[in-house]
Amino acid sequence: MPDTKAQPVLGVKELNTYIAEVYPQIIEQFPHYRVTAVEPERVLLELGTDENHIRAGGTISGPTLFAFADMGGYACVLSHVGREALAVTTNLNINFMRKAEPGVLAGECRILKMGKRLMVFDIAITLKGDDAIIAHATGTYAIPPKG
Amino acid sequence: MPDTKAQPVLGVKELNTYIAEVYPQIIEQFPHYRVTAVEPERVLLELGTDENHIRAGGTISGPTLFAFADMGGYACVLSHVGREALAVTTNLNINFMRKAEPGVLAGECRILKMGKRLMVFDIAITLKGDDAIIAHATGTYAIPPKG
Amino acid sequence: MPDTKAQPVLGVKELNTYIAEVYPQIIEQFPHYRVTAVEPERVLLELGTDENHIRAGGTISGPTLFAFADMGGYACVLSHVGREALAVTTNLNINFMRKAEPGVLAGECRILKMGKRLMVFDIAITLKGDDAIIAHATGTYAIPPKG
Amino acid sequence: MPDTKAQPVLGVKELNTYIAEVYPQIIEQFPHYRVTAVEPERVLLELGTDENHIRAGGTISGPTLFAFADMGGYACVLSHVGREALAVTTNLNINFMRKAEPGVLAGECRILKMGKRLMVFDIAITLKGDDAIIAHATGTYAIPPKG
User: Fold this and answer.
1) What parts of chain D have a pLDDT lower than 70?
2) Other CB atoms within 10 A of residue D99 CB
3) C-alpha–C-alpha distance, residues C120 and B97, integer Å
4) With a CB-CB cutoff of 8 Å, which residues 52-111 of chain D face chain C?
5) N vs C: which end of chain C shows fewer Cβ within 10 Å?
6) What CATH number does domain D12-142 carry, 3.10.129.10, 3.30.930.10, 2.60.40.2310, 3.40.630.100?
7) Which chain B residue is nearest to residue D145, measuring alpha carbons?
8) d(CA D135, CA D61)
9) What is the pLDDT of residues C46-91, one digit of tens each?
10) Per-domain residue ranges for chain B?
11) What pTM, to 2 d.p., does this model score?
């Protein structure tokens, strides 16, 4: 059976450069964000968190985890479709499963569907070096029509 | 039929004071956030947004809208259960429906279930003074056991 | 301000006839299903349930409530777009809030966004004559391109 | 590092017998349903579908896919917690990604969190023998308190 996976069109370096260029607000808020790997239908990313990203109880906040999940989807769509900065999230569902103290978050994204108009992905978020899933999200991006 | 709605135990002023005290990070990031009304099973809130809260395309970002939705749920649970800062989101599902330029966001939250262990809410987010829904979310908070 | 709500193009009777015609499986499984009102961006529906629709514990089953929620979205899209039987659900998120013994379910659907390609709706499900929400869902339908 | 995965307490045969006993309605509606493997934090299952499970367009219906996803979560919780028939779904989010003609559905479930009160899982649904994901769901079950 031939490999029918969607192939990436942007690599790690191009992707990090492009995201910083078109979405400077996210980089300002999360300076330690970066994509670390781009593969067919799969993207890995990291986010260093600190005391700005915690909530009552001293654990990483929901908005921080959401932003990381959403950036994972953005990295998926841009890496596989190209420099389409105007791709937008239409839906994101996130489950928060474990509390985590500030540290480096690791995200593993899978593209579940790479369509012409919609891309569906999921992301499992852990602390780097630990298997326990802190949060898991599934989301959809709408891809702008060509031309 | 008697009114069986859950009744709030904190008012607007107490709630805003408490949130600023236990969750200073959110206030630092969103200085123009405030709860404006607390009613049985219903909370209204506002968030002034600016260029820090936009994304590629100049529209209010997904993480900003998520944070606002999540803060809506937090205001629901705190206003109806009391000063339980450690109540945490377990699930949040958000649909993004319309693009919106920076301005004052208005949120209308409904408590759909006020249980002992879980509270379920939804929130419709608009630009203040406009009926069109920008985003809609449904979420669940886990309430810490008493004592 | 003019009323900018999307207007229905099919009435209750036309809608019930059309659904029974294009989706006989759902009617066979849920013979007591019917749309009861169609208004701008709002649809009401009912479903009589019996022992075929319960699960362990004697309460109405999740699949029954999901099917009812999904049919609510289908009624929303068909009533406002027309006889587009091939409109399909792309996402549905459902929260189950209270147990309910078999009886007549009532659903109140709101169209949150009536776009050209996507329609977003939510539905609150109660037992007829009771205010307590049994389940609440939010979903998206994709609308087939014209022509 | 020791394996910290939750271990199953019921095997495939015990699980299929128990589900048929406590939830006969689902078996009546889906006679070709069965769990095929139970592993630590992972369950596989299958569902044979026919013309009773299709919708307009001749493809497998949303309610069928939801029921299969929900049964996957039920199999996860029962296999890892024991004969707790009253475990109930509190939330389920499903994305429908590809149309599929009737055939044998295969589901791969992962337990994302095995807590004392809540279990979170996801499921990828394909046609047996095909890698393309038809639908993907994430859900939460509430586990009844002991005793």
Assistant:
1) 1-3, 147
2) 13
3) 8
4) 52-57, 61-63, 66-67, 70, 85-86, 88-96, 99
5) C
6) 3.10.129.10
7) B117
8) 11
9) 999 998 899 988 999 999 999 999 999 999 999 999 999 999 999 9
10) 12-142
11) 0.96
